[in-house]
Design a protein that fits this description.
By secondary structure, the chain is mostly helical. It contains five helices and two strands. Residues 82-87 and 148-164 have low confidence and may be disordered. One of its GO terms (molecular function) is protein dimerization activity.
Length: 164
């Protein structure tokens, strides 16, 4: 009996979603280790769960995720010396985008936190959530200002409704 093709959408059942995340995270880490061994490359994998828990893995025993990310930052600095964009913003954008890939995921996360744990959230958790929302909004406005589609000067009409 073969495997069936899964539709790529959010798994609604909380327990099934957690089991799937755990299995796929393990598979992702295994593939990263295999690629590292087979091709003799340094790999860092950073995964944030829906609850915000950090899972990280790096290739080899001598290279940590931090050392690989610092090497990435240095290489971006060398490449970006001739251009106006700094490597720090590229790395910051990379780190922010690993946290929340899309605005839709951010909204789903907020909905889950507010609906499920509204009485269990502490003031610090609410403050952290507010800071993350502010950062996401600022990032969205920056992307809107840069044309959203790469190099175009015409902003996307769907994005213009973000200003309040």
């Amino acid at each position: 009996m073969g495997r069936r093709k899964l539709e790529m959408k959010r798994i609604e059942n909380k327990n099934s979603r957690q089991v799937t995340f755990s299995k796929r995270r393990t598979g992702l880490m295994k593939k990263a280790r295999q690629l590292s061994v087979l091709c003799d490359v340094d790999i860092a994998v950073v995964v944030f769960s829906s609850k915000g828990k950090l899972y990280e893995s790096s290739s080899g025993s001598t290279n940590s995720v931090e050392s690989i990310l610092s090497r990435y930052e240095k290489s971006c600095a060398e490449i970006g010396e001739g251009s106006n964009s700094g490597a720090g913003t590229d790395l910051e954008f990379l780190l922010q985008s690993t946290r929340f890939r899309t605005c839709n995921e951010l909204l789903q996360t907020v909905d889950r936190l507010v609906e499920e744990n509204n009485e269990q959230l502490s003031v610090n958790d609410m403050t952290q959530l507010e800071l993350e929302l502010d950062a996401a909004l600022m990032q969205t406005r920056l992307r809107k200002g840069s044309g959203w589609r790469g190099g175009t000067t015409q902003p996307n009409p769907k994005v213009t409704c973000l200003d309040y």
